[in-house]
């Protein structure tokens, strides 16, 4: 096993997926680190994950969102890297033993986006491509009669496939970060179309007890973003689910200092969604929302 302590105290190695978007995210964090710490050196450790390799099957069939994270996390745990940068929405609901989310930088756009037709231009019989059950149940509620197709692959692949459908749905932040905002037809209001938990946010993990890495990362942590992301992740923890579950949550800061959480949940991909809007604070708000929605859809 690689020595988990870097030989050069100025060097931080970032484990990341090798997709264009993941590399942008890792380079972004590297830039934040260089700006915050004079003389620091940052090296990227690009990895291929099972989720990247197996684009021919739905995520729910190969282990859910963890297929994008576990190999990147393993590189930190075994010492090949000092930290891992993830799209926070791809992280499983619970952090593996030995790792800690040391920083959550300021969040980007949390909204979903349509490429192709606008929402009000979609009619019965039109086909929308998305690999997300959350997106499908909300679209079916808003525009009855739509057909759906699976959509996997990196962003370039998804955009190439978009021509074959009435529309595709992707995270707005992904297109923005890749300089592809011009492909967005419409961004969807999170008050109407609830995003995935932690969508638009980045999460940076390091080894538990790695004071060197944690000290470097602490200045990147954006307290308001951490508050809303931890609230949303508590919603998912309570449900015990991942991206295969038709569920989403989006928290915002209120003027009085509290939080407002909008959340959505369906029993399955073919059932209409239930929605809730609650005010409160902390992870308990996410837990309460999950329990209320689970009771409504008849879950345990």
Description:
The chain is α/β, with parallel strands linked by helices. The chain has three domains: 11-105 and 201-221, Periplasmic binding protein-like II (D-Maltodextrin-Binding Protein, domain 2, 3-Layer(aba) Sandwich); 112-187, D-Maltodextrin-Binding Protein, domain 2 (3-Layer(aba) Sandwich); 232-294, Double Stranded RNA Binding Domain, CATH 3.30.160.40. Helix content is 31%, strand content 23%. It has nine helices and 13 strands. The chain has helices at residues 20-36, 50-53, 70-77, 133-142, 155-161, 172-177, 211-217, 223-239, 282-297; strands spanning 11-17, 41-47, 83-87, 99-103, 112-116, 127-129, 147-149, 167-171, 186-187, 202-207, 247-253, 259-265, 274-280. The strands form three sheets. It has a five-stranded mixed beta sheet, sandwiched between helices. Strands 7-6-8-5-9 form a five-stranded mixed beta sheet. Helix 8 (223-239) packs parallel to helix 9. The chain is globular, with a radius of gyration of 19 Å. Mean pLDDT is 92; it is low at 1-6.
| CATH architecture grouping of the largest domain | 3-Layer(aba) Sandwich
Global outline: globular
CA radius of gyration is 19 Å
Strand content: 15-25%
Give the neighbour order of strands across the main sheet.
Answer: 2-1-3-10-4
Number of strands: 13
Under CATH, the homologous superfamily of the largest domain reads Periplasmic binding protein-like II
- Annotation field: number of helices: 9
Q: Helix share of residues?
A: 25-40%
How many domain units?
3
Average pLDDT for all residues: 92
Sheet/helix structural class = alpha/beta
CATH class of the largest domain: Alpha Beta
Secondary-structure element order, as H and E?
EHEHHEEEEHEHEHEEHHEEEH
Under CATH, the topology of the largest domain can be stated as D-Maltodextrin-Binding Protein, domain 2
Sketch the major β-sheet. Answer: 5 strands, mixed
| Sequence stretches where pLDDT stays below 50 over 5 or more residues | 1-6
Distance between the termini: 42 Å
């Amino acid at each position: 096993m690689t020595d988990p302590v870097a030989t050069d105290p100025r060097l931080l190695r970032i484990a990341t997926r090798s997709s264009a978007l993941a590399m942008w995210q890792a380079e972004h964090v590297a830039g934040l680190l260089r700006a915050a710490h004079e003389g620091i050196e940052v090296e990227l450790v690009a990895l291929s994950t099972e989720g990247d390799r197996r684009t021919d099957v739905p995520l729910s069939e190969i282990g859910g969102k963890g297929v994008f994270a576990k190999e990147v996390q393993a590189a930190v745990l075994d010492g090949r890297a000092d930290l891992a940068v993830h799209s926070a929405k791809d992280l499983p609901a619970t952090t593996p033993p030995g790792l800690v989310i040391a920083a959550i930088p300021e969040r980007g756009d949390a909204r979903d986006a349509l490429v192709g037709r606008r929402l009000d231009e979609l009619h019965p019989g039109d086909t929308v491509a998305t690999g997300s059950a959350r997106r499908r149940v909300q679209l079916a509620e808003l525009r009855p009669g739509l057909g759906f197709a699976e959509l996997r692959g990196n962003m370039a692949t998804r955009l190439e496939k978009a021509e074959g459908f009435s529309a595709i749905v992707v995270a707005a932040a992904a297109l923005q970060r890749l300089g592809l905002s011009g492909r967005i037809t419409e961004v969807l209001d999170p008050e109407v179309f609830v995003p995935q938990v932690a969508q638009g946010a980045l999460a940076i993990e390091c080894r538990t007890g790695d004071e060197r890495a944690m000290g470097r990362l602490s200045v990147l942590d954006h307290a308001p973003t951490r508050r809303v992301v931890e609230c949303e992740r508590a919603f998912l923890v309570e449900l015990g689910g991942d991206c295969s579950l038709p569920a989403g949550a989006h928290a915002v800061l209120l003027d009085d200092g509290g939080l407002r959480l909008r959340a959505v949940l369906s029993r399955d991909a073919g059932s209409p969604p239930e929605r809730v809007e609650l005010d409160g604070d902390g992870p308990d708000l996410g837990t309460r929302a999950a329990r209320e929605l689970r009771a409504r859809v008849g879950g345990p």
